[in-house]
């Protein structure tokens, strides 16, 4: 079982560096009985990243953006989505103590609650999460 953050899911819906590694790890996670887990905010974060690529970076077109969002919708069928209501207080404490964003702290809090690893392609999150008692993994690619 694994918790996946938005940077991980972006690599699943858009072709980026390390997308093939993300796809392999994702397939491994969902093939296990427990599967992959995300807080519900992940879908808004990934949609925002697609918007950023389309609108600000101009490195994808509308068709690619729409396909990415369609794939994101399909991922919801195979990922276990968790409400954030029971994670918010823990996430806020993590954010305040470790100077992480509340967004990132929600992933950490979910991983802690489930006793699982957190997979991310966000180097800053990996660096800032030392000492949290959660194994945060930056996959090699």
Concise synopsis of the structure shown:
This protein is α/β, with parallel strands linked by helices and 141 residues long. The protein is built from 7 helices and 5 strands; from the N terminus they run E-H-H-E-H-H-E-H-H-E-H-E.
Walk me through the structure.
The protein has seven helices and five strands. The protein has helices spanning 6-13, 19-31, 42-57, 62-75, 88-98, 102-114, 123-128; strands spanning 2-4, 36-39, 79-82, 117-119, 136-137. The protein has a five-stranded parallel beta sheet. The mean pLDDT is 94.
Tell me the radius of gyration.
Answer: 15 Å
What's the level 1 CATH class? Alpha Beta
| Backbone structural class | alpha/beta
Main pleated-sheet profile: 5 strands, parallel
> What would you say the CATH architecture is?
3-Layer(aba) Sandwich
Low-pLDDT windows of residues: none
Q: Count of DSSP E strands?
A: 5
**Percentage of residues in strands:** 5-15%
CATH superfamily: 5'-nuclease
Order of strands, widest sheet = 3-2-1-4-5
Order of helices and strands: EHHEHHEHHEHE
Helix content: 55-70%
Domain unit count? 1
Averaged pLDDT, please? Answer: 94
Oligomerization category of the chains in this entry = single chain
At the fold tier of CATH, the topology name is Rossmann fold
Morphology call: globular
**Annotation field: number of helices:** 7
Span between N and C termini? 21 Å
Sum up the structure in keywords:
57% helix, 141 residues, Rossmann fold, alpha/beta, 7 helices, globular
Record the SSE blueprint.
Layout: E1 2-4, H1 6-13, H2 19-31, E2 36-39, H3 42-57, H4 62-75, E3 79-82, H5 88-98, H6 102-114, E4 117-119, H7 123-128, E5 136-137
Parallel strand pairs: 1-2, 1-4, 2-3, 4-5
Helix pairs in contact: 1-2, 1-3, 3-4, 5-6
């Amino acid at each position: 079982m694994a918790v996946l953050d938005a940077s991980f899911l972006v690599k699943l819906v858009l072709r980026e560096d390390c997308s093939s590694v993300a796809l392999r790890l994702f397939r491994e996670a969902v093939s296990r009985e427990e599967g992959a887990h995300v807080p519900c905010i992940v879908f808004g974060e990934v949609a925002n990243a697609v918007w950023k690529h389309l609108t600000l970076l101009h490195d994808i077109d509308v068709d690619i953006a729409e396909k990415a969002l369609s794939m994101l919708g399909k991922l919801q069928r195979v990922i276990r989505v968790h409400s954030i209501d029971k994670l918010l207080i823990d996430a806020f404490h993590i954010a305040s103590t470790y100077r992480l964003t509340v967004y990132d702290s929600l992933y950490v809090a979910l991983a802690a609650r489930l006793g699982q690893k957190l997979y991310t392609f966000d180097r800053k999150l990996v660096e800032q999460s030392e000492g949290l008692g959660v194994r945060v993994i930056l996959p090699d690619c």
